[in-house]
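# nightly structure sweep
# worker-07 picked up a monomer target from the shared queue
# config: single-sequence mode, recycle default, output format = structure tokens
# input follows
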Amino acid sequence: MGMSGKAGMFHNVLSLNFEASGSAYTKDLRASELDLSSYKIPGFVQGLYTPRLSSSFDYALNSGLKLNLRNFNAKFGYQYVGPGYKSLGLTYLANDQQKFTAMTSFRISKFHFHFNWSKFNDNLISQKQFTTVRNHYGANLSGMLTNFWNISLMTNVMNMENNSNNDTTKVNFSNLVISANNSFIIKKSFLRGIMINYTYQNNNSVMLEKTKSDIQSLNVGLRFALSKNLNANTSMGLISSTLNDTTRHSTQMYSASLQYRALKNKLVSSVSFSASSLQNNTSFRTSLTSGYSLTKRDRISLRISMMNYKSMSSENNSFHEFISSLNVSHRF
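# output follows
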């Protein structure tokens, strides 16, 4: 049994929505009936359902409160799924968990700010040996610094732990991600755009040795308009990873592509080249793709790809790969 509803006030400036559901499920109808004097079961449930030894019954709730203003909005949410709740239609919905969420976003001049927080925990009726708690914090800033320079800054912090006293089952994990994106839009030039991204990620488990890792990545991309129907893109990426402050790995990635449009954009063809290198292992890939729109609903495309992988390891896992595919699609 379930119900849902929504209420809006002040022309939906403030709104409340909720979903509530109760489930009663019996695996074996031949099982003995329960002595209801020992359980807190509402009377109306007893009139609809006969609890037995193989029965499970519980409820789930999902609610949210929203505030919508012109340059400011906020949302608060609460979700509860009881340990005895079963949803026969949503197999992905895990029970025995509750979650609190809060998020807000607002605009100041040309900049947009977004903050979010969530807290999750299980073991709602203390039937497990320990409780797992997960907290997530996020912040994002984006906006136009100039009429051609767009910037976006993002950070996420997540930690997860439980109150187990056993080192085998104890969990204490943290994750930090910081990212900065810059894009430059250039007009009236064959160089149309520059994209620069830097990301730092740290993973650490207090209980497990030799699990701390730091990963840094830098990506630079250029976009060219060589002619009205011919565009080009090129990019370079560097990834540096460090494990336990001792083991270091470096990955390099390079790519370039050309795209040509003809016959009033009915024919789109592209060719791309990419290369990567990691610890003396290198790979080179070349791809050719061409697609033609037969009608507004029918399209045919051909793709040919070749890759050469060279490994300097003792196992000598070098190989060559050739892939070709023909695709015909119809949109109804």
